[in-house]
Amino acid sequence: MISGLAIIGGVVILNGMVARTRGIEALGEYLLVRSIAFAIIPVALFGIAVAIPRYMGISRADIKRQKQIFAAGVTLFLRYGLAVILVIFVFLGINPTLIGNRASFTETVLPLVILCVGLSLHQITYSYFRGKLTMAIANILHLINVAAVPIALVWLIPVLSVGKINLWHGLTAGFVVIVVLIKPAIGGLRATEGEETGRQLRKELSSYGFRRIGANLGMLALLSLGPILMARMATYEELAFFSLGIQVNRMFYPLFGPVGIVLLPVFAYYVSDGRSQKLGKSLRALFMAGTAIGIYATIHLWYFAEPLLKLWLGSAPEAGIFIFRLFILSTTAYLWFELARNPIDAYSKVGYNSRNILISVAILIGAVFLGISVLHYPAGVIVTCSYVLAFLVLGGLSVWTCFRLYQIQSIAARFILEIAILNILVLFCVWMITAPFDKSQLTLFMLAGIEIFGLGVYILGLFFLKQEWLMFLLKQFRRTEVSA
Predict the structure, then answer these.
(1) Which has the closest alpha carbon to 292: 256, 340, 248?
(2) pLDDT tens digit sequence for 111-141
(3) Which of 210, 244, 264 is the last residue of a domain?
């Protein structure tokens, strides 16, 4: 949780620094490359970043086999993952403007490829420490490579263009990872008894990963199609606020993501042992917690969008604020997807996530085509609304799949009603406080104070209502304390 909050803080600081020192349009260019990179990386890894911790979790009693699994994963990336990135490099190098009217080889394509290689190696190493359940090391590595390195580059070298920031981010992250990676990788290769063992493990990992190639390609479309369309059909200012919407959605994941990441090997172990039903109550409580926080966040990000964006970026045009507000409507549904993804992967080799993501991508493409070609609405608004619809479908399908696989009891209507009423009451209190002021003129201190008050009232309300999920999580926490 602490590392998650630190990463969120790092992303907030980084985007604010880029916007204030280089401008909103430069922020749009910067986030375009990062969005495409984070979409390409899962395709280049073709599921091995998920397969490594899963199979290490199943083999957690066999240290030697864990090393072999990691070595097999690294070998697969070096053989096939780099080839995928090279093909993308050649394809985009021939025509850089495919990803934006301002895109160029030196400022867009080359930094994109280097960033993909560096952060792919980071993901593999992060997966290794996840599989070993040494999350302290994993979180420190993640904090350094995802947040600290780009912040240092923006702050210490103000003359760097956004393209060079991405380029040096990839190079630095790759160097850090190689230093950390080399010892366990060599150890894994030495532990592999003959080529046959390594071949068998690579076959097993690739079989698991290729079943998820649909999910990876779908996420490539979900994370990159929107920014590319915005870069080609809308202004770079609109692109910046659209990309910020994507990032804000992903910011909430570190609050819950570590739970799913840590539990992926544990889930895999329980499922392989035939005890998956015991995980149902924990997953149900986790989804209810995510819903409670997601709804609160959506309402308050919408209400305070104007002062928040101006304080964060230094300036915010009306069109950008509108795009951001539209995107925020998908926050809760996107959080559902992220919460369900790891448990679904742990349960089965079947590509359930692939199915859900591809359905959502089809809806996204259909909605964009209908809005732009038939209804002739502005591209920025259509792309954003299409994304919201796609994420709503993806979140709903992910929850349905997870509940069905783990045979989780459906969430009672009373929970939704209580959360809705509580949020209305909190918003009314916040409105009473802010009514005498012009929201666009709120200072950071005032905004923070109001939100601390609102969140405090919300938490007290949850305790007063004795929400089922909250009582369950508190009970589990007390058990952990007693056992410790």
Answers:
(1) 256
(2) 999 999 999 999 888 888 877 777 778 888 8
(3) 210
